[in-house]
Amino acid sequence: MSDLVTRRDDGNVCILTLNRPEALNALSPSLFGELRAHVETLGRQGDDFGAVVLTGAGRAFSAGNDLKAIAAGEKAPTPHFQAETVEMLEALPQVVIGAVRGACYTGALELVLACDLIVASDTAKFCDTHGKFSMVPLWGMTVRLPRRVGVSKAREMMFTGRVVAGAEAAAIGLANSCVADAELDAAALALAKQVAANSPWTLRHEKELLNRAVGLGYGEAIRSEREHSPGRGPDSAARVAAFARR
Fold first, then answer.
1. Which residues, at least 6 apart from 100, have a Cβ–Cβ distance to it below 8 Å?
2. Which terminus of the chain is less hemmed in, N or C, by CB atoms within 10 Å?
3. Does the pTM of the predicted model rise above 0.90?
4. Does residue 11 contact residue 51 with C-beta atoms inside 8 Å?
């Protein structure tokens, strides 16, 4: 790989960085290919990591889909390669945390919406510009954005194409928090460490149950949890014993 996406491990936390700062980390097909390779590897690593941080190098998370690559005829290997990669990120057994500074436009917004949690810096700019280029979402925007911020606010963001800054993103539930730009990396890593300190067994199965409940009615979702929860994990006894020794 050519390091369009880099990986760094910090204990049981993995940090993936979109690494095209000179192009504001625009999402070219080549970058998506490297992202998928990392995601596939993490999917196989399972309990080795409790959390993944996804961020961008330089002053932006990502300016979105690489329109220059599209104009030049660069294509992904399959028609829905990018959308499927976003789905694979969403389905990772680890908790995925998006750390967003600067631009997070359109395709990048679709990408970060696949994260379980989002930490925004006060420089973050979330925006859907599909309408400006006569394009329609293909990577999950019409599904994930309403579930994150509600249908009315999603309609507003998509129909107007206006920029939502980091503080507003936190206020409307698009981001979980907004921090000073200089604190973003440390804040995202601290959150990831807090998550990863818990049982990977619990994290994986809670994530599965949460995803399974999407779209179910209340009673059906309650039954689904009861029927599909695996209960105590293999590390439960050791964790309970360690707590009792405090």
1. 55, 56, 61, 112, 118, 119, 120, 121, 124, 126, 166, 175, 184
2. C
3. yes
4. no
* Per-residue pLDDT tens over the stretch 124-146: 999 999 999 999 999 999 999 99
Q: Is the pLDDT of residue 36 over 70?
A: yes
Instruction: Note the residue count of the chain.
Output: 246
Give the pLDDT of residue 190.
Answer: 98
Q: Report how far residue 235's alpha carbon sits from residue 200's, in angstroms, rounded to the nearest whole number.
A: 9
Under DSSP, is residue 11 helix (H, G, I), strand (E, B) or coil? coil
Residues 6+ away with beta carbon under 8 Å from 209: 224, 225, 228, 229
Joined tokens for residue 228? 């599909």
> Which long-range contacts does 29-33 make (Cβ < 8 Å, 24+ apart)?
29/66, 29/69, 29/74, 29/75, 29/76, 29/77, 29/81, 29/82, 30/2, 30/4, 30/69, 30/74, 31/4, 31/5, 31/66, 32/76, 32/81, 32/82, 32/85, 33/76, 33/77, 33/81
